[in-house]
## 1
Amino acid sequence: MDFKRLVTKITTQAYTPDVSELVGLLTTDQREALLRSAGEVCSHYMNNQVHLRAIIEFSNFCACQCTYCGLYSGNKSLTRFRMPLSEVNDCISEAVAVGYRTIIFQSGEDFGLPADYISNCIQYVKAQGDIAVVLSIGDRPASELAAWYAQGADRYLIKHETSDPLLYERLHDGAQLKNRLDTARTLKGIGYQLGGGFMVGLPGQSIETIANDLLLLKELGVEMAGIGPFIPHPCTPLCHATPGTEDLTLRTLAVARLLLPKVHLPATTALATINPNALKEALCSGANVIMRKVEPENYRRMYEIYPRPFARYLTPREQRAEDEALIRSLGFQPDPGRGDGYQKEEE
Ligand code: 5AD
């Protein structure tokens, strides 16, 4: 089938493509046309608007054994922290003051984290106005997830990381993909807007795996998906693995936009880490979200999932101004709204 017809077919939401069709797109020799088509679909569904979201990485304690992640529990060289709530509250106030309407609370799987800590975060945000709360804190008991939703949390991010069950087990010290997917479905059942995602370029991943990753996002009914390149971290078992490439990440992002036209797709920090210019490319090839850390610099340094150059530290206000200017320079507008998922918007 020719390229244009395949793009049109895949963008039809009622149609579920097969793996070979997605592989065909991911590996097309018409790379520029693929990225451009994804950019056009994105502009159409997102009205040329880009969402800015604030992330507060409040704890780097982690009980997990993910062999790719700098926060994994085996990394004994990392100083662990959990921010005092008073500092989290200051971050929230600052993020809201500079214009963010979505605040993401992110941490490792921190078993020492009391449920009340998160309740405080939710309440503090909600007291400031109509601002969306997103949790990205790993697997927690269903009772806690339900309580936080009842307290006002809006969205939850839980990535499947890879759709290959054997690779998943190998990368996660025997943990099962099925359990991860069960949690994702539980979250959706509770009512959360669900965020998923995976890494591109994991050792042992094939193009077919990526096609299945994309199909899994569709099957789960995610409203957001974070897709970024794998970057080896020197203090992890995968320190010598080959990193994911910018090219394959951009292609994957573009196919994600075609397959999931209304889903929020960030231009991930990991992609910008392998090439600062890739942020712009991503925004023109299907991405419609930028997420920025707003916690103080000393904490950011300790939240090292993958190694990255320590760029000049920008305050949330400076970062926001720079991002708004970048968005406008590309011919888009910063979206002033909360940036909810399409299922909520359509309610
Ligand atoms: N390279 C890129 N992304 C990573 N993540 C974890 N480790 C790495 C890495 N080495 C991503 C995973 C995870 C999130 C915490 O960050 O997708 O969900």
## 2
Amino acid sequence: MWRVLPLLLTACQNPTAEPRPTEEDTDEPERTEVPAPLLTSPAEAEDLDAADDVVHVSLVADRATYSVGDLTVEGYAYNGQNPGPTIRAKLGDTVMVDFQNMIDTPTTVHWHGLRVSNDMDGVEWVSEPLLPGASFTYSFTATQAGTYWYHPHLDVEHQVDLGLYGAIVIEDPADPVPDRELVVVWDAWAEAETADEHTAPDPKTLLWTANGLVSPRVELAGGEVVRVRVINASNAGYLDLSWPGLRQIGSDQGLLPAPSEAGSTLLAPGDRADFEWVAGSEDFEVETALYTPSGGSAIGEPRTLLAVEMTAPEDAGAPLSWSGTGDPVSEDPTWTDLMYVLQGGAAAEDWLINGESYPDVTVRSLPTGTEAVIEVRNLSATEHPFHLHGHSFEVLSIDGVAPAQRTVEDTINVKIRQTVRLRLLADNPGDWMVHCHLLGHEAGGMMTVLRVE
Ligand code: C2O
Ligand code: CU
């Protein structure tokens, strides 16, 4: 613990990151205590439509200046806030977003993880970028419950790093109702400056924020049950989250068949997870183990991201019964329709999929309605969060081993030398981007196009 805190202090020079006194501190000279900032969910976008099944919001990308710890960021923001406003809808709703580009460069908005129609996907392969001053109304139907996010899909390495992202929550009215929901968007700052395309940032010095705050705290009232929806919006930082009694209830594409108590959850850039917190007697801390895409778990003490405090420790709560569909893991049909080989790095200059660097890529296609098996092999010396647009996929196996329960994702971290097999129903016609969600790799060419026709 003590080895971590000085590091954190030098990393961000932030008075609010100062440790709260513990019992061991009592013989130290007294100092004025600056309480850690209180973490709340990002403000939600206002629904401008009275109809119950229509969510109509306005979203403006503009310049913004932030203080992130001791750092001043001349960045961008949606609706003047970082993270951008959370867009909340329920299954079946029509979502309309009146978007306006007020930044000084072209942009688009992409709806990460959602099945939208191809012309709403916000990618330059399909539609013209929105020039400064331009507006566009994006619309889609909310067909998947879960935790999603939106971000630009143009000059993405810089625009996301400068603060353009926000959460999308799609509720399933059949889910259990917690006392509270907390949306936490984690980002690591100034990554573009600390890492070039070929080197991963040092997990010891990444400046992490939760909803823009360095080392905040959350208070749980007596008996409270909280659904915590977590997004990793960083360009290149991995989170390997843990806390006592960690209970993961959902992943990229909604609730897991049954909660997982595996003890830790790895969130690569682009990944989401839902957790349940139940107020109990003990305060706890959310930590991340040090993790780097160039080799996985790194040596060093975990870092504390967030403190969770009980305001009425005598009133413990009771967990809810979260469960997704009871479907079993699908059997691997053993054929392969599409293979993606991930290569590249410092030696090759470019990051490659099947030997090609975007935009000089061969478009591969699948007939609409195919139940396809995709195999992804990582032959490079770093991990890659593999992401596909417009569809979700079930994980059939990782290095030949089926997951413990059915897992439906849109982003999956593929470790060095790993092979993952994914099952996909290719039922959304269009040209869909397939890419690595380490944004430096994406910018370096690790992106291709899958045509469903
Ligand atoms: Cu989150 Cu193609 O992106
Ligand atoms: Cu990558």
